[in-house]
From TrEMBL:
One of its GO terms (cellular component) is cytoplasm. The lineage of its organism: Eukaryota, Metazoa, Chordata, Craniata, Vertebrata. It comes from Cyclopterus lumpus (Lumpsucker). It holds the Pfam family Vps39_1. This is Transforming growth factor, beta receptor associated protein 1. It comes from the Eukaryota. InterPro entries: Clathrin_H-chain/VPS_repeat, CNH_dom, Vam6/VPS39/TRAP1, VPS39/TGF_beta_rcpt-assoc_1, VPS39/TGFA1_Znf.
Amino acid sequence: MSVKAFELVPAVERDLLMGDKARINIECIECCGKHLYMGTNDCFIHHFLLDEVTSSKGKLSYSAQKLLHKYMGLKKPVAELRAASALERLIVLCDGIVFLVDMVTLETVPSAAGGGAKIRGVTSFCINENPVNGDPFCVEMGVLSSKRRTVQIYMVYEDRVQLVKEVTTPEQPCAVSVDGYFLCLALTSQYMILNYNTGASQDLFPYNSEERRPIVKRIGREEFLLAAHGGLGMFANAEGVSQRAPVNWSESVIGAAVCFPYVVALDESFITIHSMLDQQLKQTLSFRDGHILQDFEGKVILASTKAVYVLVPLPLERQIQDLLANHKVEEALILTEGAQQNIPKEKFQILHKRILQQAGFIQFGQLQFLEAKEHFRKGQLDVRELISLYPLLLPASSSFTRCHPPLHEFADLNHLAQGDEEKVLRCKKFLITYLGEVRSTEVANGCREDVDTALLKLYAEQNHDSLLDLLASDNACLVADSIPWLEKYHKYFALGLLYHYNGQDSAALQLWIQVADGDLQDSTRADLYEYIVDFLCSSSNLDLVWKYADWALRKDPTVGYQYLKLPQMSNSALRVKLIEFRLLSPMLQKEKFHTHLAVLYLERVLTLLSQSPTDEEQISRARERLQTLFRVSNLYRAQFLLGKMENCEQLLLERATLHGKLEEHDKALHILVHKLRDFPAAEAFCVWASSCRDSVYREQLFHLLLGVYLDGNPPGKPQTAAGGGDLEMAAVDLLNRHGEVFDAVRVLHMLPEGWSLQLLRPFLGRAIRASMHACRTSQIAMGLAHSENRQLLHDRVRNKPIFVSEKKGCHLCHNTFSEPDVVCLPGGVPVHTHCVAQRVRDSPTKRQLTNSSSHT
């Protein structure tokens, strides 16, 4: 049994029907709304009222109340009952006679004047539930005659019946069902479809009515269910075509009914329930002594000879959930889709989506990923339901909560896998594939951040190649949730891409630099350094470029040079930095690089100066960089650069520096003193211009500045008292600060005679001290040199032997030596000690020292 589709519920118990009369048997039944009619073998019709009672647990039961019973006045059993509710009549077949009975009083309806209310010689009849007559107070009825091979069509009114058509059949019919103009007949040896309006007929298939009781059951518009040979339930439409596969019931079926989507069949011992959708047996119920099975407006009623039961269908959703609980996914889906016609469209769409989602999770748990993905897609699954199975994949900020009631039985992936790592891995690979497919579709609308962040985490964990593609394209990955995962799996390059995508280029570069320097380990890119340089080349953030270009160039100058040569490198700031770096290389001291850098610096300054409003801070930094280059480098073309700024009065300081490089110190000092009136800058210029020159050059340069101060205003410019005073004070300050540089005598000749010595006191004091210092320093130097010379001579004498004998004479007195004590003159010449002493006494220096000592 696949599913419990029905429950058998008692409706009318034996005691209520027959009391103490044990020989009464039920022959036929009819149900109209809550009214149940039964015909018995003693020619009675019993009328019951059935009330449905639902318990607190939702279980359905029936309460039957007997309203009336009536004897029909014949000695035969009541064979058939059919209700015509619009006429408030029962059509009764008893003893071969069809007559009308009032539904309320059960009284036989008398014949109307001019017409009869009875039909005689009838073996069976049926009501046309798809009438062709438009009269609502008229019922169409097909009648089988016991003596002729005909089918008669009657119109049944409130108090009469009227024959309207009689159709001849090839054989004696034994069962009939009518739908519109179509008669479905069970003849003696076969079934056939007959159009009584046109006379057209269609043989269906053979059947031996003598072996088995034929079954002809209308189940829908122009469609019939027939009992065929071999225990098959065959479907046939009005054209004689079977559009459904047959159901395989038992050989001994005695009754059948349809309660969509099921076919219910009754045999001697069981009730079997087959699906019309897949023709499979779904349920079997034990039911002994049953001999009647009818469906009335969707209600299936069975009867044994003594009691009546209702076959209550369980709610469709419960049936589907039972199938899903037993992992019968395909059957559940077939049942859901087959029931579409019986469910309101909006409700069906909601139900269908949920069933598809549940089916998807069942197949996901069975690792049937292709089928699961298809069900998720058709069911429009909120992808977060799937992501939530994977621990920690959903961002902490996600507001998602799982569907209730739940779509599956799994707590999480670990519960599903039960420790099977291979299963976990396969599930993760499936989620990677699924998220990659849906992230750009409507499925991810409203939850793109959750999807992309989960996908990033999976890519990082699985070392997937698509991680970089995700981060390099449009994405909604949450930075705060992604950082720990990328760091955990050492995906620092990917983390840098995430920073870059979110506008945090500085953080990205810091991270990449740590990897390139070996502080962090990440083997994603072997050419990370080249990537960083390329990133800087294309960056429009000048501050960022200046910040990190130094590192890039120090790391590998060769690569920096190569990028400098690229014509497509649009980042001028980086080009400047690269040229700066080149200037630091002693192997690349070339004029063109220095000049190029200077031009770039100058263009940058001119650009800033032309902006409105001007950024004074940026201008100051740019000019400082330009001035530093002018002072430090000796290789640029100064005259060329001077020409570029000739008419720029805002760059006078830079022009003065260039004049200094060209040894045009008078022009430089003229600019500094007379145009800029920047006296400290003029002094700094003299210090810089003479920094690598001798003292004579330095002295000349300072004397030149002093002369500019003392000469006053240049020709053509009126002399002012204030201007002359400023220059005189600048001259005094210059002398007092740098007095040791000047030639004091020359300065005194240059100074105006009206200046007081008190004003020049600091200069004169420093000049005298400098002179005395120089004199004494020279004396010390001479003494040290003399001492060093004597020490050298001593070392020579000591290291070279001197021979003295009686045959050698003294070079001073020319007498021979009588003793070994001698004094050695320069050149290693021995003399007597007393001769040397006499010579020292007679020397002019000795006499001078002796005379001077008398004055102390």
